[in-house]
Amino acid sequence: MFGAQLPQILDDHERWLAAAPGGRRANLAMHVLRGIDLSRRNLTRALMAGADLSTATLVGCRLEGADLHGADLSGADLTQACLVAADLRGSNLRGARLDRTDLRGADLRSSDMLMPVPMKAAGEAPSGRDIVFRQARLGRALLVGARLSGVVMRECDVTGAALRGADLKGADLGGSVLRDVDFTGADLSQADLTATRLSGASLVGTRLNDACFAGADLVGVDLEHCDFSGALLDEARFSQPLDSLALDMRHRVHEHERWIDSGGTRGARAELEAANLEGADLRGVRLSGAALRGARLRGVLLAGADLTLADLSGADLTDASLRGAVLRGAALGHARLMGADLADARLDPADILRPDGHPSGRSWPADLSGADLTRASLWRAQLQYANFTGADLRDADLGQADATGVRFAQARLEGAIGLDRLTAPASAQAG
């Protein structure tokens, strides 16, 4: 009986999403949907708590914000499915296929993704390197206390995820982006983190016995509170703090801070056009008003830095960490920000001051025209009145961003998430 009603339930749900007459939100909670094919259906915000979706085919299915609390997704095919901000607490994902699955912002606390190693064809030995999670996107995912022992999660983007207290013993995370991930108290013993990018990650209290960090990027990791004894660190890359930069570069940064503090009467403005600061740890540095046109800043750590009214036009900030940075009124036209982390950053207008230091009543918006922000995270960023004309925002995360008055004319927005919740007028988004 229920099987015959399902097509109508799905159609009514899509009408509900479109606010069309006759629409009704799909309620599939506790239903047995084992082996069902829901490929490419739109189940955004559907109620599916406790549903049995084991071995279901959910290829390309839209499940943004869906309630899948306690659902059984064991053996399900979630290839290219979108589960952005979905509630997956306590869900069973054992053996699920998560190939290019988008789980950004999903709540996976206490979910079970312990995956047994698949058996090979007759005569072949089983291998722990079979790809299960492949190029999945787990940015900002809540995986606190998740049971992930032995999981295979290669080439995934896990930027900013919370993995506090998670069991990752023997996990294969090779080649994954783990920037700004909170691993506090997690178990990474015997885990393979070869060629991972861990810049800015927290490993405080993490168990790292026999973990492999060969070729890993550990820039910005607080080493004083990590015990790497017994871990393999061959060719791992560590921070290049400000104090380790060339003397001339350090002098210019310090003189710039004097220039700021004195209102321009002492020191000198930092002129760092085309400077090479790649991989440097510049967290919390004050470079407001600095000239950084065309600078090489790939992978740089600028979390919490003050770059108000700085000129970063044409700069290469690929994979840079700008989490919580102040970029009010900054010039970022045609900058390269692919994969950059701008979560909680301020890109709203800067107040223009009079010569006496008092507000003039005028402001200067941030300029990101023509910038490449593919795969960048702008989660919860303040973007008010910023200029994104002609920018490339494909697959960017704009969840909870304040985009009041933002100009998106001619911008590429394919695959960007959070657009439906932006506070910008629809006309601005249409471009």
From TrEMBL:
Instruction: Specify the domain of life of the species encoding this protein.
Output: Bacteria
Repeat in keyword set: yes
Pfam families, from UniProt?
Answer: Pentapeptide
**InterPro entries per record:** 5peptide_repeat (IPR001646)
Q: Which UniProt keywords apply?
A: Repeat
Q: Which PANTHER family match?
A: THYLAKOID LUMENAL 17.4 KDA PROTEIN, CHLOROPLASTIC
- Name used for this protein in its record: Uncharacterized protein YjbI with pentapeptide repeats
Organism, per UniProt?
A: Nitrospirillum iridis
